[in-house]
Amino acid sequence: MDLKATTHVCVSPVQAEDEEETQVHPPPPMFLIVVHGGTTGAMLRIEGRETTLGRSLENGHQFPDPTVSRRHAVIVHDDEGLAWLTDLGSSNGTFIDGKRLAPAVAVRIEDGARLQLGVSTVLKYVSLNAREESFQREMFERSVRDNLTGLYNRGYFMEQIAASCERNRLRNLGTALLMVDVDHFKRVNDAHGHDAGDAVLREVARTLREATRSEDLVARYGGEEFVLAIPIASVDQGWERADQVRRQLAGRSIRAGRKELRVTASIGVSCGTATRPRTVKALIATADVALYEAKRTGRDRVVAAERILAESERRTESCEALAV
């Protein structure tokens, strides 16, 4: 019998444990968590060896803060896994734990450090394992989502709309802002109860998600009112997208317990184009005026703020002509 051929090497439990302990595990991923100057709690994962930070779309992470330069700073991970932050000649400075960095000089970033870009964008640089990342994301989602519909809430929309408009502008696109109001919603609650009203709002939210794309920003604005910000190539496209939403809502059958309901919506739309942009404040204000006009003139319709402004200008010109 060949003992050599049948002999096996057995690893003792202690040796196996030692080998297990000496295994090299990859370091947990690093994140920038927004503390101030954006949506608090938002998690920005640091990918690859080099990540640029700044106001323009070309960066790994973009910050719409006007005090942040277009290419503001860069984070680099070296071969040993250490992180270094370099200011790229920004106008308003880059800071680590309150200390301003000299331009073009790499400074080591420690786990847990507070980074500041410009005047008001503050970030925390942290490592998170899978469990911590999952918990952080869950907490963030709870803070920015509407409990009933699952859409973003008004606060998140207002924090994101300016950045959304800027991204569209850099792609040579405009932005259409749609204010959507469910017609006669009080009647639904009065006739069928608040459970039926909640079912209607959830179904409206589902319809809006189906009618929009990943690049569109959709939120519950409050009560039975919803708001959308979508990139557009023209004013006509903004109106067409709004009317598509209106038609999909009108054709929807909504189950509320044993009841089957149908609802319509009035929509006011305001557009800023690449050549004639509007401020966020102007987009919201004029879309709200258009929504009021849609409700005043019969509901279940889309009214464009541009049409109201054009009609107002024509009336003004007519009055001036008569005065002459």
Give a short overview.
With 324 residues, the protein is of the alpha+beta class.
Structural summary, described in words:
The protein is of the alpha+beta class and 324 residues long. Helix content is 38%, strand content 27%. The protein has a six-stranded antiparallel sheet with strand order 2-1-11-10-7-8. Strands 4-3-5-6-9 form a five-stranded mixed sheet, with no helix packed on it. The protein has a five-stranded mixed sheet with strand order 13-14-12-17-18, with helices on both faces. Mean pLDDT is 88; it is low at 1-9.
List keywords for this structure.
single chain, 324 residues, alpha+beta, five-stranded mixed β-sheet, 9 helices, 18 strands, disordered N terminus
Based on secondary structure, the structural category is alpha+beta
Percent helix among the residues?
A: 25-40%
Ends apart, CA distance between termini: 123 Å
Number of strands: 18
Mean pLDDT: 88
Biggest sheet details: 6 strands, antiparallel
Can you list the strand order of the major beta sheet? 2-1-11-10-7-8
Radius of gyration of CA atoms, rounded to a whole number:
27 Å
Low-confidence stretches: 1-9
Shape: globular
User: Which series of helices and strands comes N to C?
Assistant: HHEEEEEEEEEEEHHEHHEEHEEEHEH
Percentage of β-strand residues: 25-35%
Number of helices: 9
Question: Any chance you could write out the topology, listing elements then pairs?
Answer:
Blueprint: H1 3-6, H2 13-21, E1 30-36, E2 43-45, E3 50-54, E4 61-62, E5 73-77, E6 83-87, E7 94-96, E8 99-100, E9 107-109, E10 113-117, E11 121-127, H3 130-144, H4 154-170, E12 174-182, H5 185-192, H6 194-211, E13 217-222, E14 225-232, H7 235-250, E15 254-256, E16 259-261, E17 265-272, H8 280-296, E18 302-304, H9 305-323
Parallel strand pairs: 3-4, 17-18
Antiparallel strand pairs: 1-2, 1-11, 3-5, 5-6, 6-9, 7-8, 7-10, 10-11, 12-14, 12-17, 13-14, 15-16
Helix pairs in contact: 5-6, 6-7
